[in-house]
Design brief:
Helix content: over 70%
Distance between the termini: 53 Å
Number of strands: 0
Strand content: under 5%
Amino acid sequence: MNSKSRNNNYLNIIFKILVLLTLYLLQQLPATVLTTAASVPTAFAQVKLSVPFIFLITACISIAIMFYLHQRTQKFTTKKLDWQSGIWIVGGAIFNYSINMLFLPLMKTSNNANVAAQNQLMKLFPILFLIYAVIIAPISEEIFFRGYLINWFFADNLYLGAVVSAIIFGALHISQDPAYFLSKAILGLTMGIVYLKTKNIKANIILHVINNISAFFIG
């Protein structure tokens, strides 16, 4: 590889990283609306009814943009969901549930910033948080972590991409609890494998939805 090709490759990687950071901020927009409303309640006291509207609008816009870009940049052709996809989804759901049950007794009950923030939002905006947790977050997180990270940076080794995306997925669920991080990383790896086996982003989105719904029942 000559110096010009290397420079172009570096510039391409830098460009992808900058775009990825921008898309991460976009993916976080709906949650940011809720956290801002929760942290500055006086600012929303007289416009309380606008919070659901702003939340839903930002969610729809961010998901539409992310899904469109994913469809344009995915490195392989999307396959239709079939009975084999269903087997991977069901198998992944059972495995994820088992991992949650295994790690739950090992997790710290305090000093977990991610869980504390979710609990606060659940108390202040129960319906909006439920919509976010079981619909919006699974869609946007799967497109970002599995769709973008794997396809953009690991086109030549998709399964390595699944491992790296799982580690980043676990790390970005901010916590100083190793058990919490490890559980999220394993869940992320499961969803990455399902994505690559089914060749359809909707499969791991469905799996993520099932996982988040089950989380409400197991604490």
